């Protein structure tokens, strides 16, 4: 019996694997719940407009709104990071003020 278990364990070793159920951390701090919801809605609307062509104008309008939301959120996030920076010279240059 020990020989059978030995060969079985050699043939099918126990290994650790990721199952995909782990909660992913948000490495991009600018992604908010509002952006995630907008992205999910846009994805659903994309699938609907493929099936119903009359929804294409609405989809395009929502896509523009989503892009504007992402752009505004990124801008706000980056301005917060810059304003709280320890190196004030870099934050002044990033804000557009040039030293002379």
Write a concise keyword list for the protein shown above:
100 residues, mainly alpha, 4 helices, 0% strand, flat
Description:
With 100 residues, the chain is mostly helical. It has one domain. Helices cover 64% and strands 0% of the residues. It is built from four helices and no strands. It is flat, with a radius of gyration of 25 Å. The relative contact order is 0.08.
Largest sheet: none
Q: Shape, please? A: flat
Number of strands: 0
Figure out the total of helices: 4
Low-confidence stretches: none
Proportion of residues in helical segments: 55-70%
Instruction: State the distance separating the first and last CA atoms.
Output: 84 Å
What does the secondary structure layout of this molecule look like, with pairings?
Layout lengths: L1 H10 L21 H19 L4 H28 L4 H7 L6
Helix pairs in contact: 2-3
Question: What is the structure about, briefly put?
Answer:
This protein has 100 residues and is mostly helical. 64% of the residues lie in helices and 0% in strands. The relative contact order is 0.08.
């Amino acid at each position: 019996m020990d020989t059978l278990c030995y060969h079985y364990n050699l043939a099918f070793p126990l290994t650790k694997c990721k199952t995909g159920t782990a909660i992913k951390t948000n490495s991009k701090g600018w992604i908010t719940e509002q952006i995630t919801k907008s992205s999910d809605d846009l994805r659903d609307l994309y699938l609907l407009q493929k099936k119903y062509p009359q929804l294409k104008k609405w989809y395009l309008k929502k896509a523009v709104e989503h892009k504007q939301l992402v752009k505004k959120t990124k801008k706000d996030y980056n301005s917060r990071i810059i304003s709280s920076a320890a190196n004030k010279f870099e934050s002044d240059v990033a804000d557009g003020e040039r030293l002379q």
